[in-house]
Write a sequence for this structure.
């Protein structure tokens, strides 16, 4: 199945479900060495849940998150996503379907900001709203409110973020995703390079998203953040491929 109009393949409230997922890497420039990261992995996340991916360094947390976002193609299994009134399997979906799911349903915050150079910060945050038909003035208002909440000084809004500090870039990254109310959010250490105050603001944003019903899967190295946002934990240690 790629896209199914029958959402009953997902139980009520389940937004994303991975089944039998396996991921390995073949290092062609290292004599074809094969790294099996995980296999037979099943997980699901429902509305209003924040699932914390746990496990030691190298357990495969980021690889799993990238597989859930279809950045990595797993060797086996499926990643079912509730998208509008359909269910899409991101492992077999066409690229245009994946982009459509990412545009409206599935938000992803990576550790690093990757944006088109020379685009001013405010435009980067406004754009996801205007492409969805939000009135430009309202989109700008919402983007500005969020940037201010994330303590990006207004003097920086007209500048592209390439020269911003690591923490500022991370907060722009967060604003670009959180300006929309995505039904599903994937978060890869969104608070990693933030100071205490900004960490608390981002913690609040995550918790607000969950309370409005977002299904969230995240990696958080900070124990305080994990305790504040997590509703359930998923340990990858046991899912290591044999
Ligand atoms: N693109 C890639 N090419 C080759 N190997 C990779 C790639 N991405 C990840 N790996 C390998 O997969 C394994 C899992 O890495 P991953 O980054 O998913 O772990 P992690 O649990 O997120 O670790 P950390 O907590 O240190 O960030 C590691 O052994 C890593 O070397």
């Amino acid at each position: 199945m790629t896209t199914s109009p029958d959402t009953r393949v997902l139980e009520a409230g389940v937004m994303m479900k991975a089944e039998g997922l396996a991921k390995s890497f073949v290092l062609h420039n290292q004599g074809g060495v094969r790294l099996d990261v995980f296999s037979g992995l099943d997980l699901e996340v429902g509305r209003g849940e924040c699932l914390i991916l746990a496990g030691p360094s190298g357990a495969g947390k980021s690889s799993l998150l990238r597989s859930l976002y279809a950045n990595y193609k797993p060797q086996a299994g499926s990643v079912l996503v509730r998208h509008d009134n359909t269910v899409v399997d991101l492992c077999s979906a066409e690229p245009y379907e994946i982009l459509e799911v990412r545009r409206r349903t599935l938000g992803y915050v990576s550790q690093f900001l990757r944006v088109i150079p020379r685009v001013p910060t405010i435009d980067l945050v406004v754009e996801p709203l205007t492409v969805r038909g939000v009135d430009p003035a309202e989109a700008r208002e919402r983007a500005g409110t969020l940037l201010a909440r994330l303590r990006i000084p207004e003097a920086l809004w007209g500048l592209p973020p390439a020269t911003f500090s690591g923490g500022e870039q991370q907060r722009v990254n967060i604003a670009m995703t959180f300006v929309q109310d995505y039904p599903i959010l994937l978060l890869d250490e969104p608070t990693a390079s933030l100071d205490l105050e900004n960490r608390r603001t981002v913690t609040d944003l995550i918790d607000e998203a969950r309370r409005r019903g977002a299904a969230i899967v995240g990696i958080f190295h900070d124990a305080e953040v994990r305790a504040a946002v997590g509703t359930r934990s998923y340990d990858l240690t046991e899912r290591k491929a044999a």
Observations:
- The chain is about 30% helix and 25% strand.
- The chain has a mean pLDDT of 93.
- The chain has one domain: 3-27+34-239.
